[in-house]
Amino acid sequence: MVEIDEDAVDVIVHEGSAMSVRDMVTVFERYHRDGPGIPLAAVEEYAAELDSKPDYRLDVDGFVGDVRERLTADEDWVDMNHFYELDGGRISQYPATWHAELGEETDPVRYLRFLRERAPEYHNELQEGGQGVGVPKDTLTKMIEVLGRVDRDVAVGAIEEAYGDDRIGEEPDQHPQADVYLPEGAEERRD
Question: What predicted TM-score, i.e. pTM, was given to this entire model?
Answer without folding.
Answer: 0.89
